[in-house]
Amino acid sequence: MSAPGAPRRKRRPRTAEVVRTEQLTPHMLRVVLGGDGLAGFGADEFTDHYVKLIFPPPGAPYALPVDPDAVEAEHPRELWPVTRTYTVRSWDAQRGELAVDVVHHGDEGVAPPWAAVAQPGDRISLFGPGGAYAPAADADWHLLVGDESALPAILATLEALPAGASAVAVVEVADAGEEQPVVTAADVELTWVHRDSAGGEPGAAVLDAVRSATARGGDVHAFVHGEADLVRAVRRHLRVECEVPLERLSVSGYWRRGRTDERWRAEKREWTAAVEQEETADS
Hints:
Blueprint: E1 14-25, E2 28-34, E3 50-55, H1 68-74, E4 82-92, E5 97-103, H2 111-117, E6 123-130, E7 141-147, H3 151-160, E8 166-173, E9 187-194, H4 195-198, H5 204-214, E10 220-227, H6 228-241, E11 249-255, H7 261-282
Parallel strand pairs: 7-8, 7-10, 8-9, 10-11
Antiparallel strand pairs: 1-2, 1-6, 2-5, 3-4, 3-6, 4-5
């Protein structure tokens, strides 16, 4: 942490250009970025690498690409840019191309409307890459759980698993039209849960599938990301009922039903502390 009065460390966003877009499913759009600004990008260590795309708020008197430090020095807070975090679906170092997959539901949100109209040559600023998870080579098996927001990282992980590895993936999507093909050399058991026809409590069918998978026992390395309440239920099962150690878990609520992105980010630390306290009390 910087000392009081110390100058804030300057952030250095990259500027990338849209190369092409591709409609993967009715609600998933891929945007491929390139350009000299991605030189040395280096997303090759983790399967959950991510970038933070930088957007002006509605009515901002400036356009893409954005230098957040310059904007914040010249404009009031309500005109500062916002960021949206997206998984690096793939990084082709030879071609210098970065692919991000965006869930799109009409004009909702900030990034989806941008992705829907993005054209080759359009420019955007971004921070990254970040990342923290890669499947542990010494695990008996891997558990990958999430929804559409986690699907890019789940698919990237399955692609990275070698022959002989064992994995179970449980993915909640709206319906069969949102399923995507899986390419992997590993032995994978994949369950698609269709939210629109699952019935009952949200996430209940996902938790049932996870309970069935964990009955096998063994040393599991788990990746559980997506809607916060779904993540909370699966995490509790793994920590309390299965006694999976924290170092074998990568868990995060990417978003929460009924919350804007900004509100969820403001609440997330307190939510995480409450989840950890619950687990301690129940264990």
